Amino acid sequence: MLLTALWQTVHSLNQRRGFSLMAILTLAVGIGSTTAVYSIADAVLFRPLPFENAERVVRLHSFNTARGFDFINVSYPDFTEWRDETAVFDSAAAFRMRDVDLAGADEPLRLRVGTVGADFFRVLRARPVVGRTFQIDDHDPANELATVLSEGLWRGRFGGDTSIVGQSVRLDGVPHTVVGVVDETGQWPLNARAWVPVRFVMPPTARSDHSWEVIARLAPDTSIGAATTRISTLARRASASQPEERDRGWDAAATPLLSLAGDDLAIDGVLLLERQMRAQLAGPRFVTWVLSLFGVVSLLLATSGVYGLASFALASRTHEIGIRMALGASQRAVRMLIVRQSAPVLIAGAALGIAGAAAIARIAASRFAGLAGFDLMSVAAVTALLVSVALTASHLPARRATRIDPLHALRQD
């Protein structure tokens, strides 16, 4: 009899330990995976552009309906004319994008880098995390090459080391001095990881070279329509004066980087930038929707898993509950006992899940532009949901068990 009782006790402890471990792991995986997926989805799908007064930031572009171009980049002479001969912009900047290799102590990293004009960060109202953004001297070909890093690259590649300012990094084998790091307010285009200044010995003069992207911030009390009218007048006048037939028929418009309008709405006959942004983000958006689906599935599995584990573990304690009630324990005392016994498991699972979510978020923030390193609200929401489910799963079976006749419970094996 003694050996039988001992074996039953050890078996019961093992079962409880197994339940505790499974519950902890289920909570941890549910919290960690769901919050990580939500952070990515929030940045890629839902979060608006982070620029100050983003509704005032516009993209300037050319179009030529006769030649089938409804949205195309700008020639550099057109950009300088629009910038210098109009009062509709507070600031404007031209830039180009290219891929380069970042070399250093670690493995080479392929980066998307912007070659940007003097007012680029002024247009975005970018905030430096450390150091500064570009100054006029940085655009002088006689001075040393400079670069500004994104916060994601700085934290992911350089560990957030503030002494990076003044150090040299090699972009495509060419040394560049790091002058600063900008947060997400300078993150344009969305996949840019670093920026270098435009440096001309002689600025480009060909109007047929539509290879420059242009962003601008509207002047106070200036509407997008007014900006479009002004640059359209200048573009048509310049195009009509070109000697080559292929260089004629060009027009221009301003469209918002951040648009609250639908995809089918047009401003002065030109489609909104939503089309271009959707094309740029098509791949990341698709992947994010798939990840979000898996995140929802993960949350549902974690929820059902926690509920099932708690329900099974407590249902197997019907006999124990019957004994306690037969000895005079009240229903409330039994329920509180079960909740207290579940608390360490819930705390351990939540702590492990939050630690995992923080680690995943840190890695993701270095890989995805615009991601917050640790989304406290999403972590708290998912943790509260799963812990509430676990508490409910602990309470309901206990409530059912306390309603069983103690004599009936004592007769069960």
Question: Which secondary structure elements does this structure contain, and how are they paired or packed?
Answer:
Elements: H1 2-46, E1 57-64, E2 69-72, H2 76-84, E3 89-103, E4 109-116, H3 120-124, E5 128-131, E6 146-150, H4 151-158, E7 168-171, E8 174-182, E9 194-197, E10 213-218, H5 224-240, E11 251-256, E12 266-267, E13 270-271, H6 274-315, H7 318-326, H8 331-367, H9 376-402, H10 406-411
Parallel strand pairs: 4-9, 6-8
Antiparallel strand pairs: 1-2, 1-10, 1-11, 3-4, 3-7, 3-10, 5-8, 6-9, 7-8, 12-13
Helix pairs in contact: 1-6, 1-8, 1-9, 4-8, 6-9, 8-9
> Helix content range of the residues, please?
40-55%
Distance between the termini: 15 Å
Biggest sheet, in brief? 6 strands, mixed, barrel
> How many separate helices?
10
Secondary-structure-based class equals alpha+beta
Strand content: 15-25%
What's the gyration radius in Å?
31 Å
* Spans of at least 5 consecutive residues with low confidence: 1-18, 260-284
The dominant shape is elongated
User: Order of strands side by side in the largest beta sheet?
Assistant: 3-4-9-6-8-7
* Number of distinct beta strands: 13
Mean pLDDT: 75
Number of domains: 2
User: What is the succession of H and E elements?
Assistant: HEEHEEHEEHEEEEHEEEHHHHH
